[in-house]
């Protein structure tokens, strides 16, 4: 199964940034062009976010240049808040992840 994982530096729900301790994005490619994606976000404090569809904007660490500089990328899409436990929220993508290039998916079974 092809997949990619990214560390999220900034996560916004609509115009509001969430105060993050740590957040990750996981993208999975299955047969066909559709990508499944999920965000797991740990916030500094409990956040009042409804279990509903939300427009997300993610600024992620997308790599490192040959000179050791971080490469950042911005992705966006609609996701559903499916679970909240204490200060952790899990969002599941509910459509495309704009800005994400499927060429960035790796296939560990094929060696890369």
How would you describe this structure to a colleague?
The model has no long low-confidence stretch (mean pLDDT 91). With 112 residues, the chain is mainly beta. The protein contains no helices and 7 strands. It has a 6-stranded antiparallel β-barrel with strand order 1-3-4-7-6-5. The chain has strands at 2-13, 16-17, 20-29, 35-43, 53-64, 70-85, 88-93.
Shape, please?
Answer: globular
How far do the termini sit from each other? 11 Å
On the 0 to 100 scale, the average pLDDT is 91
Provide the domain count: 1
How would a textbook summarize the main sheet?
6 strands, antiparallel, barrel
What order do the strands of the largest sheet run in, or round the barrel if closed?
A: 1-3-4-7-6-5
Q: H/E series, N to C?
A: EEEEEEE
Continuous helix count: 0
Q: What is the helical fraction, as a range of percent? A: under 10%
The rounded Rg comes to: 14 Å
Task: Quote the beta fraction.
Answer: over 45%
- Unreliable segments (pLDDT under 50, ≥5 consecutive)? none
Provide the structure class: mainly beta
The total of beta strands comes to: 7
Descriptive key words:
six-stranded antiparallel β-barrel, mainly beta, globular, 112 residues, 7 strands, single chain
Could you give a short description of this structure?
The chain is mostly beta strands and 112 residues long. It has strands at residues 2-13, 16-17, 20-29, 35-43, 53-64, 70-85, 88-93.
